[in-house]
Amino acid sequence: MLGASLVLLSHTIAPAAWANESFINKTRVNEIRLAQARFTPDQLPLSDLTNSSELQFDSSVRGRIGAGSIRHQGRLFSIYRFEGEAGQLIRLNVVGELASDRPSDRIQTGSLLVNPAVILLDPNGEIVAQQPEQANAANALIRMNLPTTGTYHVFVTSTIIGAGGRYDLTLQQIEQVR
pTM to 2 decimals? Predict the structure, then answer.
């Protein structure tokens, strides 16, 4: 399990801490969940694309994942859509915070989304990009040229199952230097 992260009550624990006896004594086995950074289509609420919100280029959205969010396989999601053109260079950024920056006993409703993840679906429903590559990151950034013209969907969630909170989502069109 080299390089893996362990999540305990929405708090990331470094692999070195696993052997800590006081950590083991305070932990119940059913509260441990592995954080995940890579998503597959079956892990996304694809049937809820009609509930997506419009996302404009060169704008930011302050969102919140919580009580009214879309639920799928224990995760909470916000879904956005935008119109893109083949070859268009974009930048998608979701800012939240690291789980390790917040003790598990201090999780509050108004806090930032821990370990945010962003997944981009192309007009054919295929995952064309997702970030982060690892499960322990304070933001998730995608920069890419869009492969085709049409409606893209952006999924915002956390790499930690059941985690929620506030986030800032920005979509930018980047001018290509020629």
Answer: 0.72
